[in-house]
Amino acid sequence: MLPQNTFLIRQTEKIESESSFINILCPQLIEFVDESFFDKTIFINSSPGGGKSTLLKTFSPEVLLELKENSGKENYRDAFELLSNLGVVDENKVKLLSVNISCARENYSLIDDLYENGKATQVFLQLLSLRILRKVLEAVLKCNQLEESDLKNITFKNIPEEWKMILEHYDNGEKLYQWTLSEERTLCTSIEEMSSDFKSSMLFNNLAILSLIGNENILLFGEPIKQKVLIMFDDFHSLSMKQREILRNAIFTRRANLAIWMTQRTVALTREEIFGNSGQIHREYMFININDCVLKDRHGFYRALKNVADRRVAISYKDECFEDKLEKDLSKESKKRLESIKNRVIKKVDAFCKGNENYTNICNYLLKREFDSLYESIVGWQVLLIMIERENKKPQYIWPFVSVFDEEQFESEFKKLRKNAEYLIKYKYNLPMYYGMNDLLAISTNNVEQFLDFAGEIFEFRIALDYSSKRKRTSLISQEDQERMIKKCAEEKWEDILRTFSRGGEIQRLITNIAELGIDGVKNNTASYSGGTFTGIGIKKSDIMVELDSERNSDLLSLLKICVAYNLLSVQDVKQGSAENGALYKVFYLNRWICVKFRLPLGYGGWKPLTIERAEKLLYESKEI
User: Fold this and answer.
1) Cα(527)–Cα(62) distance, integer angstroms
2) What gap in Å lies between CA 130 and CA 108, rounded to an integer?
3) Which residues, other chains included, contact 571 with Cβ-Cβ below 8 Å and sequence gap of 6+?
4) What is the DSSP string of 102-143?
5) What does the DSSP assignment read for 174-194?
6) pLDDT one-digit tens code per residue, 341-375
7) Residue 61 in this model has a pLDDT that exceeds 90
8) Which of 486, 483, 480 is nearest to 450 (CA)?
């Protein structure tokens, strides 16, 4: 029986076993959370697959209880230590009372259609209040490991004015719980039957429920519970714009003594929010983008992804790391071509340098220099070729080594241009370009699910290869096979654009034209940018803000918003020029799997500055920019 491809286990909320979840959980992915998160209202944004579902499940009562009960387990140690340091669990107690309120429920979307403005607001807030209260009562029992009969021992210290009438009739948790079930059932039945006529004990104009369940206001056996309260509104983007505004205002008006997280996909953000300032801290709330948190510590994120891969591999193959089966050396077939490639690069150098007095010295140095391998020597000659072609493109031909050949100067350039030279060699001579753990990490583009997509393709091949290699000497995955799997996954994602988006053709055209700028850069052969060529475009932030303030409905900004929201492009602020007078650009980098699709480098740094007018030409078939 073949082992399971554990990389296919994706949707966190569908992993029923807490033990299974913790076994594949990588705590480093949530290290951006600190103790202040449990005292504030926070908007947490991410693109699909960015990790918001993992974040919410990690702080669920079920997972915290599992960690408390089994804190000594080897596989649980890292997660327990992190969450213990955050003060949400220890060996004796779950110290966080969290509830997850899904905003993706269908009946929310029907409310605006069924009821007029004022009543729609009341029904929406009533349904939320009932669900929050019911889930909080359930969480009190779970986190304190009590029986359902203990509901009667839950009461409240201070009762908001709006809830006094209810609490007079339902004066303990048991009575309240039954009331919430009855009220919610009645309300949901009316909504589902499309009936605007229903009876209710009361209608809510606010979220006073937040004050009722705030920190230290819930009593258990007459004493305040020693647990902080966290309400998590998941899929906040699924609510209508009107409902999102109602919920935001209700939360900020109440200013309750508890923590609130609202997680949403970036697609819910406005163009102003995406292209404006991210990571904003307001008086009322914090605004956090998981992707931005990753960018601040990319190396830490990469370590976390390695951990993710190894944890998943360990389920099927004990004592094995994901990287163990990735071949690090060229195949025999590729090695046979290296001598021919070297001769072709030297021939190009020779064509440029004939008649130059420094030519003999330069070549003699390279011929005598000791390289670690034949491939390394090709890189050295390619670096020299880049330097020559750069000088040759200057208005006046100025040889870099004027009178006496400076070996230190060449060695300095060799270190700077090594990656650029390697990219050009692989691109021009069709050697494997995308392989190994480092490339898989780069291709992830700060997205856990994207990493699992590509690593999963390779792991699936590894399982099949392991089965068939019983008659062979090795089960290592060659560089060529790694690249083939990576390209296969990239092509599938490219086709998904047409299936996923109503404007898929326009999105593909925009992305293709951005990629073509990079391909044109490769043809110039000067490798003037990090990694070898352009992998993005930059537009002055001031130009974007002018465009946003205008009444024009810009197709360019609309498509860029979609691409950023769905992680097809990532956006970064980059200052070009001096600190005092430099211009701030919004740089839109291609997702690294798109770089695979177009055989572009995975490194960042190379981008082409464009005006709004020139960038708009990327929307059309013929780009003349």
Assistant:
1) 53
2) 13
3) 274, 275, 564, 586, 587, 588, 589
4) ES--HHHHHHHHHS-HHHHHHHHHHHHHHHHHHHHHHHHHHH
5) HHHHHHHHHHHHHHHHHHHTT
6) 999 999 988 887 776 666 667 778 888 888 999 99
7) yes
8) 486
